[in-house]
DNA sequence: CGGAATCCACGCCGATACTG
DNA sequence: CAGTATCGGCGTGGATTCCG
């Protein structure tokens, strides 16, 4: 297969993942399966309803997650990864691993800085 | 190997890649090897010197790229991926591929929207 | 040539209040 | 319970100017 990154599609993938809470949301839904709005909120200390709603809507818009509304009182809304959304999993795992190694890398660097001062 | 993404390192990796021109810069350096500042600038229509400098500095700070200054007039500065930086390549490629498929996915969706209106 | 410095528009995100 | 609406700070990125 030819490699022609003239048109860089990395940004398309990046655009989906970027958003302060998106990686956490995706990782959570991938692990836990279907979750209600309140469960998501409870699991992410510090997030506001507005932000959670916004990030979920954006992911839904890209067909990464699915939103199911149960017409009842009180309301119940469930979110889950779509089949298509799961195709992001390898990328997320790769980034998680790389990020872990990078954290170690930066710690080593810190030590070098200290010992040379 | 246990999976414990309690502490999500995805964001660490994401932080490196995020920046309007970083993916392009990285892909370019990965393909072309060492490049001068002016070559980078020429290859990225629309970028300003300020932004190019800033993105390069940030990548250098994370040890992803290396910056070599030749003390001469006129100045000459070369940039290249570090060995460490190359470890990002598989992730970038995965994102590029995913992004390509995602673009197709969105096009299909557009067609559906049109035909249902 | 490869910057640094300044000014500014815009969008992300947080805090808060209100609603069916 | 699961949102919507509004206000505002702050950071990112663009345009422009000056420098060794």
TrEMBL record, chains A, B:
Keywords: DNA-binding, Transcription, Transcription regulation. The keyword Hydrolase does not apply. One of its GO terms (molecular function) is DNA binding. Residues 8-107 form the HTH hxlR-type domain. This is Transcriptional regulator. SUPFAM superfamilies: Winged helix' DNA-binding domain. The keyword Nucleotide-binding does not apply. InterPro entries: ArsR-like_HTH, HTH_HxlR, WH-like_DNA-bd_sf, WH_DNA-bd_sf.
């Amino acid at each position: 297969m030819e490699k022609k990154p003239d048109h860089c599609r990395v940004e398309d993938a990046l655009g989906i993942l970027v958003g302060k809470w998106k990686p956490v949301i995706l990782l959570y839904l991938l692990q836990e399966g279907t979750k209600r709005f309140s469960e998501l909120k409870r699991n992410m200390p510090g997030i506001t309803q507005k932000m959670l709603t916004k990030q979920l809507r954006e992911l839904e818009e890209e067909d990464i997650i699915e939103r199911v509304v149960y017409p009842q009182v009180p309301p119940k809304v469930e979110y889950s990864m779509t089949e298509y959304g799961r195709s992001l999993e390898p990328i997320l795992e790769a980034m998680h691993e790389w990020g872990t190694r990078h954290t170690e890398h930066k710690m080593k660097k810190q030590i070098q800085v200290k010992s040379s001062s």
